[in-house]
Amino acid sequence: MKRATNQHTIRPSAFRVRGAVLAAGLGATVVLGAGTAFASSGTAAAAPLAASTTADSVAQQAAAQAKAADAAKKTAVKKASDAKKKAEDKKKAAKKNAASWKTPVKKYKLTASYGTGGARWAAKHSGQDFAVPIGTTVTAAHTGTVVKAGPNGAGDGPAYGNAIVIKHSNGKFSQYAHLSKVNVKIGEKVKTGEKIALSGNTGNSSGPHLHFEIRTTPNYGSALNPAAFLRSVHVSI
After folding, report:
1. The domain that contains 181 carries what CATH number?
2. Which of 39, 146, 182, 222 is geometrically suited to a Cys-Cys bond with 217, CB 3.0 to 4.6 A?
């Protein structure tokens, strides 16, 4: 009776051992399966992450290129705008400078022109005559400095009577002759339209008028066609 009781006692212990082993095996399988699933899941997640990173890099590069292109375009537009403005400013300055030239007298009648020949002149006429009454105000045709002033043609000879010569910034000289009165002195600076004299009939003159010349030097013999010159600076006579 004692032996039967002992065998009965041992069997449950063996069953428990087997159960524990089986449980341990099942646990290992479960754990291993979970690890495998974890590894598989990690690999699958890495691929979309890499693709996403590459896409972001391409997008950033494209954005940088677009930004650089936009900056280059703005620079080109600014340069073109600056060049256009510079050209317009230069044109305005030239126009303003040209507009500052004026006729030396108002309410006149044109008589002898440049290049006219005749017994009155030893050579062809060197200027443009403006017929005006004696005592008419004579003004500077353009801003400049008086380099000649006085009788005897201001040094150019008695044929001019009382005369004035003004030097201008463009290298040209204007001359005013047959004056009844000289109102400026050598070295004096005058502005466009400023009164410099009164017209007259002095020197070799057949009647009251202003003899006007444009010269390349202050002296006789360097005259240009004054009418053509005034037209070139937008002054009609």
Report:
1. 2.70.70.10
2. 222
